[in-house]
Design brief:
The protein is built from 7 helices and 13 strands. The protein is an alpha/beta fold and 283 residues long.
Amino acid sequence: MRTPVLRDALPASPPKPNVTLMEGGEVWEADAVDLISSLPDESIDLVILDPPYQSMERWRSIGTTTRLKQSGGSSNPWFKVFPDERYLELFYGLYRVLKPRSLLYMFCNEETRDLVCTGYSPQTDKCIATQKEIPISVEEWGWKRHSVQLNHGPLVAVGFKYWKSLVWHKTNGRGMGYHFPAQHEFIIMAEKVRSNGNGRHRKLNFNKTGDVIQAPRLKGKQYYPTEKPFELIQILVEESCNENDVVLDSFCGSGVLGQVCRKLKRRFILGDINPEEALRRLK
């Protein structure tokens, strides 16, 4: 029996995006969900995401950092956030396109991690788990509809196995926040599993790194906002897939994942609503 999936989370037919083919992969100018909806079933070997999560938006008006607003000291304009309510359709699509026993990593803060994994944030008392009608598999290709209350966040509700939260320790300087400023960021680690599986799960290729990964935060106007260190992304890719596998990032930003994939001989599919920086670097 297949794992229950949220059929009502499927988006409408997306517009055809602009796709740029290049050495090692391709870059799409597209909304993240639209990109994923255009991909074939079980065609992706690894997903690494760094979405502009909504919980950062409330700091824009306070102006705790110039990276969150347009100002004289701002090195870059801030980008459009990805609404919390869209994670349901995002993870539905990712579950569909990922191959079985493949991994998903997502960078996030504590509030977004709680919302994605449990549907509730104790920091803001926000809940995104709502009543949904889902199709329950009654046989290999037959479905019946059944209304249930989601008691989990969207990641688990669509069928992913949540393993743990890795910690990226930013080794250089203080982070943002009023109380003990954060010097870390979480990386959700999840796996696509099926209820009819044989109990086996994905093993890392080397398992040589602990769950606290140390890498300096990139500072300076030469970097894309929230750009992640090359060595950090390299660890995730190297441990979680093999040469010639396809790695997806639908919030590609600077395009650093494409650079890592080229070095490690993986193929990449990158997407962003504004992919100019990724295209510039990868060309």
